[in-house]
From TrEMBL:
CDD domains for the chain: AKR_Fe-S_oxidoreductase
Name this polypeptide is given: Aldo/keto reductase
Organism: Stanieria cyanosphaera (strain ATCC 29371 / PCC 7437)
Record Pfam families: Aldo_ket_red
Annotated NADP-dependent oxidoreductase domain residues: 39-162
Length: 393
């Protein structure tokens, strides 16, 4: 395993982290006796495998159902001084509820403290205010830190780059969990802002939200040769020293194996990545046209400025991926979450686009005239049964 300094925490963070939202039994709390023995044995084997390969950062959240309770059966058996444990609590209107949930997490984990506490989901102005108002959730987290129950405080986010940078620039956090990977590099400015604050940078879900890379389309497999799409994306992310760790949402012990192949390639990353990135870019141009690839996202409105709250940037991005790389299944999964994702994945699909005049909100786009038709095309290509967030399913 390789390790990187996790910003001002000074923790030596493994470049891969063991994310805790794929191996648990249920997305809801339930009594310990209801956990099947084979599920618990698989979780414990996954954690031991993680630890054995040097991945000593175990990351979970109060919102991950039975994950914390099941981890509480194995974490106390491991050497505490070698573990880096992170849990996350969502901002609440009532800070006392935030505090209550944290103590529930600590009880489930059977630990005296966590190394990292993340405010889970500073995604919009409402959750920002719940965190930062006087006496709010950040103040509660500081009390927990003063009591020795938390070492370092960070935040996780699925929000816009603007809200992420606003949160980073408060200077109040030691680290950030955010999305950034080859197919979605929008948050690079936020990563640079985090570097200016000497914050740790943790990449959320690079293999799932980063393209369902555990089940890639054949076209993407061919374009990423001689690497698998998963190893390509790992290497792409870790070739940037501003990135410290990638979350691996392991569901079984063997799920680490493909990722580990990236470690021996890090010293040669630029040489290996360059021809693959060139092929990916040329494939997009061949399918979509160079002008579109270069300017498709220029001047697009955010969903709050768009009639019907249609999330035009996300829909066009998903259309690009489906057409350029045959990533139709991934694009469908994400597209049909629109309208059901709350502030975690906001905005609406394009199924009602014909009801609205989009020209005023598209006035700054060089493609204003054709975007309404492209949105209709995207809905025909990707539309289907609504998808719920995992934590609601």
């Amino acid at each position: 395993m390789q390790y990187r300094r996790f910003g001002r925490t000074e923790l030596q963070m493994p470049v891969f982290s063991c994310g805790g939202m794929r191996y648990q039994y249920k997305w809801q709390d339930l009594p310990q006796w209801q956990i099947p023995g084979d599920n618990q044995r698989n979780l414990e084997a996954t954690i031991r495998r993680s630890f054995d390969v040097g991945i000593n950062h175990i990351e979970t959240a109060r919102g991950y159902g039975s994950s914390e309770m099941q981890l509480g059966k194995i974490l106390p058996k491991l050497p505490r001084e070698k573990l880096i444990v992170q849990t996350k609590i969502s901002p609440q209107p009532d800070p006392k509820e935030f505090c209550r949930q944290f103590h529930q997490s600590l009880k489930f984990l059977k630990l005296e403290y966590v190394d990292l506490l993340g405010l889970h989901g500073i995604n919009n102005e409402e959750t920002f205010q719940q965190s930062f108002r006087p006496g709010g959730c950040l103040d509660e987290a500081r009390k927990l830190q003063a009591e020795g129950k938390v070492r370092f405080i960070g935040f996780s986010t699925h929000g816009s780059t603007q809200i992420i940078i606003k949160t980073i620039e408060t200077g109040q956090f030691d680290y950030v969990n955010l999305h950034w990977y080859y197919i979605n590099q929008n948050n690079w400015l936020a990563i640079e802002a985090a570097q200016c604050q000497d914050m740790g940078v943790f990449i959320i879900s690079p293999s799932d939200k980063g393209g369902k890379l555990y089940d890639p389309p054949q076209k993407l497999v061919q374009l990423c040769q001689p690497l698998s799409p998963m190893v390509f994306n790992d290497l792409f992310c870790l070739s940037h020293p501003q990135v410290h760790t990638l979350s691996l949402g392991a569901a079984r012990p063997s799920d680490f194996d493909e990722h580990l192949k990236a470690l021996s390639l890090l010293d040669q990353a630029e040489t290996i990545l360059s021809p693959i990135v060139e092929r990916l870019e040329q494939a997009a141009i061949a399918t979509l046209g160079s002008e579109w690839v270069r300017t498709w996202n220029v001047g697009l409105p955010n969903y709050e400025e768009t009639p019907g709250k249609i999330n035009i940037p996300v829909i066009l991005w998903l259309r690009n991926l489906a057409l350029a790389y045959d990533m139709v299944e991934y694009a469908k999964m994400r597209y049909n979450l629109l309208g059901n994702g709350g502030h975690w994945f906001p905005g609406a699909k394009a199924d009602r686009v014909k009801q609205f005049n989009l020209q005023p909100c598209l006035k700054n786009s060089p493609h204003a005239d054709k975007i309404p038709d492209l949105l209709i095309e995207a809905d025909h290509l990707l539309g289907g049964q609504a998808v719920q967030r995992l934590s609601r399913s």
